[in-house]
Amino acid sequence: MTRSFLDLADAGAAGVRLMLDEAVARKKARAGLPKGAADRDAPLAGHTLAMIFEKNSTRTRVSFDMAMRQLGGTTIVMDSGSMQLGRGETIADTARVLSRYVDAIMIRTDDHQKAVDLAKYADVPVINGLTDRSHPCQIMADLQTILEHKGRIEGLGWAWLGDGNNVLHSIVEAGSLLGFPVRIGCPEGYDPDAGILAEARARGGGILLSRDPVEVVRGADVVVTDTWISMGQAHAEEKLAAMMPFQVDEARMAQAAPDAAFLHCLPAHRGEEVVDAVIDGPRSLIWDEAENRLHAQKAVLLWCLGKLG
Ligand code: CP
Ligand code: NVA
């Protein structure tokens, strides 16, 4: 059985937990191996992942490429501008053709519907490597990082400060699936998608949306933020000014739980959403978080290709 991973809900709580356990175990099992060496079982030997990028990427591109190598497979990396997709070939036709060549497709796109359509018309699994709506692979890595550092996920309180964006949407979804409350601090006009909040609440997710950053961060176990201007958005002084009260600085971190962790998907805009003293400080887990993109995505690939559960 193969299956797509466009959002965390596609795997459900059980699937997400299965992938997290696999990611943690596989990371431990390859300790000491050179980064380019395959895992001992090379479970995706003979498999190829095609990656389509409509937007820039460092982590997603390299971590998926290395993930496939470590699983024993290979990759083809394409920028949409150099594909016929960039000249108007449809997503449906692209999906049908790529399905004849490769075993799975990852796409990073500005329009979530393109990922949905790709999955609809492809005969192979499609993985969301970031859309305007969500970033589920990032949150798999975030969850793995919290699990490794705190020993559990359930019940820990997350505080999001800043823009109501794609990364936040996947955190909200994760909270509702795995049972952790998410408090959100956004300036008016930059809220997350109301439909995504409603879906999460319908699943029982505990969500607070507030204009008060102190209320949001007070006692939180995990403090998380992201760029105020996502890829494809216009740089707007007005937006930056509205976001300033939601900047994560040392004073804000001091309002969280004493052992609160700081997460950021990167790339960071130091001096905007977060200051150096926090992102480089003792509670920042950003380098483990970035590394875990690799391990978490190996589990995602195995789940999509029917090798897990
Ligand atoms: N966090 C993340 O997705 O990074 P890239 O944009 O570098 O892939
Ligand atoms: N919200 C950011 C995440 C980048 C990894 C963006 O969409 O640009």
UniProtKB/TrEMBL annotation:
<dbReference type="GO" id="GO:0005737">
    <property type="term" value="C:cytoplasm"/>
</dbReference>
<feature type="binding site">
    <location>
        <begin position="230"/>
        <end position="231"/>
    </location>
    <ligand>
        <name>L-ornithine</name>
    </ligand>
</feature>
<protein>
    <recommendedName>
        <fullName>Ornithine carbamoyltransferase</fullName>
        <ecNumber>2.1.3.3</ecNumber>
    </recommendedName>
</protein>
<feature type="binding site">
    <location>
        <begin position="265"/>
        <end position="266"/>
    </location>
    <ligand>
        <name>carbamoyl phosphate</name>
    </ligand>
</feature>
<comment type="function">
    <text>Reversibly catalyzes the transfer of the carbamoyl group from carbamoyl phosphate (CP) to the N(epsilon) atom of ornithine (ORN) to produce L-citrulline.</text>
</comment>
<feature type="binding site">
    <location>
        <position position="108"/>
    </location>
    <ligand>
        <name>carbamoyl phosphate</name>
    </ligand>
</feature>
<dbReference type="InterPro" id="IPR006131">
    <property type="entry name" value="Asp_carbamoyltransf_Asp/Orn-bd"/>
</dbReference>
<feature type="domain" description="Aspartate/ornithine carbamoyltransferase Asp/Orn-binding">
    <location>
        <begin position="155"/>
        <end position="304"/>
    </location>
</feature>
<dbReference type="InterPro" id="IPR024904">
    <property type="entry name" value="OTCase_ArgI"/>
</dbReference>
<feature type="binding site">
    <location>
        <position position="226"/>
    </location>
    <ligand>
        <name>L-ornithine</name>
    </ligand>
</feature>
<feature type="binding site">
    <location>
        <begin position="57"/>
        <end position="60"/>
    </location>
    <ligand>
        <name>carbamoyl phosphate</name>
    </ligand>
</feature>
<feature type="binding site">
    <location>
        <begin position="135"/>
        <end position="138"/>
    </location>
    <ligand>
        <name>carbamoyl phosphate</name>
    </ligand>
</feature>
<feature type="domain" description="Aspartate/ornithine carbamoyltransferase carbamoyl-P binding">
    <location>
        <begin position="3"/>
        <end position="148"/>
    </location>
</feature>
<dbReference type="GO" id="GO:0042450">
    <property type="term" value="P:L-arginine biosynthetic process via ornithine"/>
</dbReference>
<feature type="binding site">
    <location>
        <position position="293"/>
    </location>
    <ligand>
        <name>carbamoyl phosphate</name>
    </ligand>
</feature>
<dbReference type="Pfam" id="PF02729">
    <property type="entry name" value="OTCace_N"/>
</dbReference>
<dbReference type="InterPro" id="IPR036901">
    <property type="entry name" value="Asp/Orn_carbamoylTrfase_sf"/>
</dbReference>
<dbReference type="InterPro" id="IPR006130">
    <property type="entry name" value="Asp/Orn_carbamoylTrfase"/>
</dbReference>
<keyword id="KW-0963">Cytoplasm</keyword>
<comment type="pathway">
    <text>Amino-acid biosynthesis; L-arginine biosynthesis; L-arginine from L-ornithine and carbamoyl phosphate: step 1/3.</text>
</comment>
<feature type="binding site">
    <location>
        <position position="84"/>
    </location>
    <ligand>
        <name>carbamoyl phosphate</name>
    </ligand>
</feature>
<dbReference type="Pfam" id="PF00185">
    <property type="entry name" value="OTCace"/>
</dbReference>
<dbReference type="InterPro" id="IPR002292">
    <property type="entry name" value="Orn/put_carbamltrans"/>
</dbReference>
<keyword id="KW-0808">Transferase</keyword>
<feature type="binding site">
    <location>
        <position position="166"/>
    </location>
    <ligand>
        <name>L-ornithine</name>
    </ligand>
</feature>
<dbReference type="InterPro" id="IPR006132">
    <property type="entry name" value="Asp/Orn_carbamoyltranf_P-bd"/>
</dbReference>
<dbReference type="GO" id="GO:0004585">
    <property type="term" value="F:ornithine carbamoyltransferase activity"/>
</dbReference>
<comment type="similarity">
    <text>Belongs to the aspartate/ornithine carbamoyltransferase superfamily. OTCase family.</text>
</comment>
<dbReference type="GO" id="GO:0019240">
    <property type="term" value="P:citrulline biosynthetic process"/>
</dbReference>
<dbReference type="GO" id="GO:0016597">
    <property type="term" value="F:amino acid binding"/>
</dbReference>
